[in-house]
Amino acid sequence: SISKLRFKVVSFSSEDPDNPADQLNTVNPRTKGWQSVRFCSYPQELGFELEDGIVKLNQIQILSHQSKISKKIEIFVGNGKSYQTANFKRLGYLTIDSNERSSYSARELKTVFVDFSGKFVKLR
């Protein structure tokens, strides 16, 4: 059966003090989410550890901010003893609408279907 996986942020390139990466560890409508530090260098990277060990991953969902929008997000999955030493495989990438049509007022939820067993996810 399909269920939401427990995860935690274990790596990030940068974070805005008002929107730190650990905001992603709690999934509810009141969390503000993560933002990179202003004027950061690109690409930015977020790393997640799936807390139930090696699991079968069927889909990944990413909710975009209404006006601070990534042009492209690459998805990597990996296995290993730790995030830092894991072997990652690039699955591909997704793009998010510029949101110009909605005057930057609508967030976009992207669902990516994958078929992988692993312990780590990297977004870049």
- In which order are the strands of the major sheet placed? 1-2-7-4-5
Termini separation (Å)?
29 Å
Q: What is the percentage of strand-forming residues?
A: 35-45%
The number of distinct β-strands equals: 7
Tell me the number of helical segments per DSSP (H or I, 4 or more residues long).
Answer: 0
Described by the principal axes of the CA atoms, the overall outline is globular
Q: Could you describe the largest sheet, including whether it forms a barrel?
A: 5 strands, antiparallel
- Helix proportion range: under 10%
- Which spans have pLDDT < 50 for at least 5 consecutive residues? none
| SS-based class | mainly beta
- Let me know the average pLDDT: 84
Order of helices and strands: EEEEEEE
Radius of gyration: 14 Å
Explain what you see.
With 124 residues, the protein is mostly beta strands. Helix content is 0%, strand content 43%. The chain has no helices and seven strands. It has strands at 7-12, 46-50, 55-64, 72-79, 87-95, 108-118, 120-123. The strands form two sheets. The protein has a five-stranded antiparallel β-sheet, with no helix packed on it. β4 and β5 form a beta hairpin. The radius of gyration is 14 Å and the shape is globular.
Structure at a glance:
This protein is mainly beta.
Features:
124 residues; mainly beta; five-stranded antiparallel beta sheet; two-stranded antiparallel ribbon; 7 strands; globular
